Amino acid sequence: MTAFAVGIVWCIKSSEFIFHIDLSWLGVYPQTLHGLLGILTAPLIHGSLEHIFNNTLPMLILGTLLLYGYPKSRWRVLATVWLLSGLGVWLFGRESYHIGASGLTHGVFFYLLVVSIFRRDKRSVAIMMTAFFLYGGMTMTIFPRDEGISFEYHLFGAIAGVLSAVMWHSLDPKPIRKTYDWENQYEADDPIIGDAWQMDEQYIDATHHQNTQSTNEEKQ
């Protein structure tokens, strides 16, 4: 599924080269009517081969972690990040065309990061650690660095990912904890003595009472 989506992005970029067209006008242009279309189309458009190369692996890896790690919330997360990141850029972004799937990848990354804090099960933590090990630098790219990079898309994608984690962290059931046979077994009695060592509490109390009476009689 993730590979299919990445293939579509590459087909769009290839068509630009083959037919010598520029589709950057399909990006988000803040506070303009025609720029609203970019909320839906901007993640599919990339400015250069370097741009699409930089987003390909994050789309594949983070998308796969989301799709298979959170089967019930995955589509809601993708839709929320896709729409809210674009809307945030349209409302508050710089006057320029904002394109690329980096807002989507940042949103998924921050979802995986924050949802593990809420859930704290082994699977969520393992997914988070994998994502952070590979793309932990995304925590810094939400800030302005280069005029040619839309940090706004990164920032609002991250915000959308955090909101998604807050809303749907409990939608996917936690994995059932596997228990082993030895955890449910009590220590067996000695095969020779058996349970002869065990004494009934009433017998212990009666013996103690008799000993107490004998001691009192001796004192008298």
Question: What report would you give on this structure?
Answer:
With 220 residues, the chain is mostly helical. Helices cover 60% and strands 0% of the residues. The protein contains 8 helices and no strands. The protein has helices spanning 2-19, 38-41, 49-69, 74-92, 102-119, 122-135, 151-168, 201-219. The protein starts with a helix and ends with a helix.
Task: Briefly say what this structure is.
This protein is mainly α and 220 residues long.
What's the SSE blueprint?
Elements: H1 2-19, H2 38-41, H3 49-69, H4 74-92, H5 102-119, H6 122-135, H7 151-168, H8 201-219
Helix pairs in contact: 1-3, 3-5, 3-6, 4-5, 4-7, 5-6, 5-7
Which key phrases capture this entry?
220 residues, mainly alpha, 0% strand
- Based on CA atoms alone, the radius of gyration comes out at 31 Å
Low-pLDDT segments, ≥5 res: none
Q: Looking at the structure, what is the overall shape?
A: elongated
Range of helix content: 55-70%
DSSP E strands, number: 0
